[in-house]
Amino acid sequence: MAFDIDVIKSVYDRMPERVKAARELLGRPLTLSEKILYNHLWENPVSQNFKRGADYVDFAPDRVAMQDATAQMALLQFMQAGRPQAAVPSTVHCDHLITAQNGAEEDLNTANNESKEVYDFLASVSNKYGIGFWKPGAGIIHQVVLENYAFPGGMMIGTDSHTVNAGGLGMIAIGVGGADACDVMAGLPWELKWPKLIGVKLTGKLNGWTAPKDVILKVAGILTVKGGTGAIVEYFGEGVTSMSCTGKGTIANMGAEIGATTSTFGYDDSMERYLRSTGRADVADLANGIREHLTADADVYANPEKYFDEVIEINLNELEPHLNGPFTPDLATPISKMKEVAAANGWPTKVEVGLIGSCTNSSYEDISRAVSLAKQVSEKNLKTKAEFTITPGSEQVRYTIERDGFLDTFDKIGAKVFANACGPCIGMWNRMGAEKQEKNTIVHSFNRNFAKRADGNPNTYAFVGSPELVTALAIAGDLTFNPLTDTLTNENGEQVKLDPPTGDELPSNGFAVEDAGYQAPAEDGSGVKVAVDPSSKRLQLLDPFQAWEGTDLKGMKLLIKAKGKCTTDHISMAGPWLKFRGHLDNISDNMLIGAVNFFNEKTNEVKNQLTGQYGAVPHTQRAYKAAGVGSVVVGDENYGEGSSREHAAMEPRHLGVRAVLVKSFARIHETNLKKQGMLALTFADKSDYDKIQENDNIDIIGLTEFAPGKPLQMVLHHDNGTSETITVNHSYNDQQIEWFKEGGALNIIRKSVK
Ligand code: MIC
Ligand code: SF4
Q: Model's pTM, two decimal places?
C-alpha cells in the first residue's frame, strides 16, 4: 500500500467538484496545471480567475520533502514554530552528504562517521515531529519520492530545486527554500505567483539513440536557463503518452534548468504501469477512477495556442541526441554537430570520465539501456576508453539492477558503483588529480554543469547527455563520437558500430529490495529530545534576525558588483561546504566566493571601502558588519539561478547585507531573499547596472512608504562627490513587505506562537 493513501484519497474525492467549479468560473476548458492548482487552493470555493504571472495565491500542498543539506536549515526553522507535529506528511532524505570516492560501501561508512552528528539530528527531529526519515544510502530524494510518494494530480513542495522531478508522475511539484517548507509544515498556506503556462507538444516517437533526456536538452536550448521563469511547462502529445513515466521524470527534473516553476504531464498508461510496478496499485486504481480530471480537457491539447502563453512543438521522430554544455545546461549541441562546435570552441575532446545515474537519470529503463551498450564492449571486442561511474538513484533500483545482472556487466567495463546518493553531481566527488586544475572533459547524465560543480576544478568541461549517450562516449573516449554514424576500432583493429540501445521500461520480474532505508517516526514524538551541542561546528540553533529599523537605509557600501552568471553555486558553493549547511555562521564564510567581481574580474577579491584593502568577500562583509555598516550586492541577469538553497539568502542576511539589486532574479532565490527579510530589488532600467561604481556609498529611499507595485529609489554617492538617483523595482506584496519589516517570515510565525 502507498504511504499516506488517505491524503491521496481526499485529493481525488474533492477534485471533480473543484475542477467543475473552476471550469465554470473561467468559462473555458482547463489545462492539467490549472486543474491541480485550483484543486489545491488554500481557500475554497474558487472565487477568482487568477491573473497569470501577476496574482499571488495561497495554496495547500499535500506534502513536503527535504534533503539533508537543506533540511537542516528548514528544520532548525521549523523547531521554532512551536508545532507538535508537521501539519502535512513530510519526509527527510539523506543523500547530499556522501562523498564518492572508493565505491558505495566504503563511502557510505565514511559518511556515516563524518556526518553522524547531522544524521542523528535529522533523525531525531524527524522522529519528534512525525516526519518520515530515509537513511543515508536509501537513495536520492527525487527518485525516492517518485517511487514512493508522488501521485498524479497531487501538489508538493520540496527543499530542493529538482523537486520538480515528481512532475513525471503528473504532480505539480515545486522546489522551495526551507522557510517555505517550514510554513507548510507549520500548517500555514504556501504562496506562489499564479504561473504562466508553456505547452510543449511532442509529436512522433522516441527511437534509436534518442532518449527523454534529449527532449529536455532540446527544450533547454530553445528556452535557455531563464526561459521558463514563472511558468509551468505542460507536456502533451503522442510523444508523451508513448514515453515511460521515468522518462517523463527526467524531463520534469531538468525543467529546473530552464527556471520553470515546474513541469507536468497528464495521467496515462505509463504512469499506471509505474505505480503498479512500484507497489502502488491502490493509487493507480484511485487515479483510474478520476482519469479525465488528471489530464487537460480535450480542447486544450487540440488547440493549445488558445490556452498556453507559449507553445513549443518538437517532433521526436527527428530529434537527435544532444550534449549540453560546457558550464551551462542550455548550450545545446546535437551530436552530429559536436565535431565542428568543439573544434571551433577549443573544447577538449578526450572524454576522461562518463558518469551516469543521479536523481535525473537512474531509472531501471535508463540503466538497462546503458547496459545494452556496455554489453557490446565484450561482444564487439572493444575497450572502454574513459573511466565510468554509476550513482543509482535509490536502493530499490540498485538492488533490482544488481539482481538482474546489470551491475556485473558494468563491472566488466571497469565501472565504479558509487553510493545511492548525489555524489559527483554536487561536488561530493574526491576525484583524483582534480586539484591540479587541468583542462579536461567529462560527460554525465546529471542536470547541472556549472563551473566547478562536479569536482571543484574550474577547468573541467562537463557535458550533459542521456545515460546511453554518456555510456557510448565513455566507451569511445571521445566527445565527438557520433554513435549514429561513426565506427570504433576494436582490439582486433576492425571497425565496429555500436547497435542502438535497447532496454526495459520496468523490471519484468518486478522491483525488489531488502532494506529500502526507511525509518518511520514515533507515533507520539513529544518525549523525543533534540540536542544541538553549542560547540558544534556543523549545527547551530538560529537566532532571530533583527527587525527593520523603520527608516530609509543610508550610507551603505557596495560589497560586490557581480559580473555575468551568478548561480547559487557562486553565492554559496556546495561540495566541501555542504558540511556546514546546519551552521549559519560557519557556512557564511563561503558567501559569494565564486562570484566574479566586475571591477577586477577576479573571484573572492573585493575592495573594503573602510580600509581601501582588497580581501575575500565574506571577510570584507564581516568587517562591514563589525563596523555596523550595511551593504548592497549588485548582480546581473537570472541572479541566484540553480539551487533552492536558502543559505544563499541567509548568509548575506546574517552578515549584514541589506539589499540585493540585480537585472533579474531566479524565482526560488528571490523568494528566499524576501523570506529572510532582505530587499530583493531589480533595476528599473537595466543599463543602470553600468552606473554602479566600486567606491559607491548607497542609500535606499522610499522604505517608509514601501508598498506593492511602488518602486524605490536608490542614491549612488560616487567617490568623486557626484551622486545619481536610480529607480529600482520590487515584486513584494503586502505579506512580503511584512516579512521585510519584521526581519523575516520566521519572526512572524514565532510571534504567533508566543
Ligand atoms: C543541487 O542540485 O544543486 C542541489 C544540491 O540538489 C540543490 C539543493 C542544495 O543546494 O542543497 C538544489 O537543486 O536545490
Ligand atoms: Fe542530488 Fe544532483 Fe539531484 Fe541535486 S541534482 S538532488 S545534487 S543528484
A: 0.96
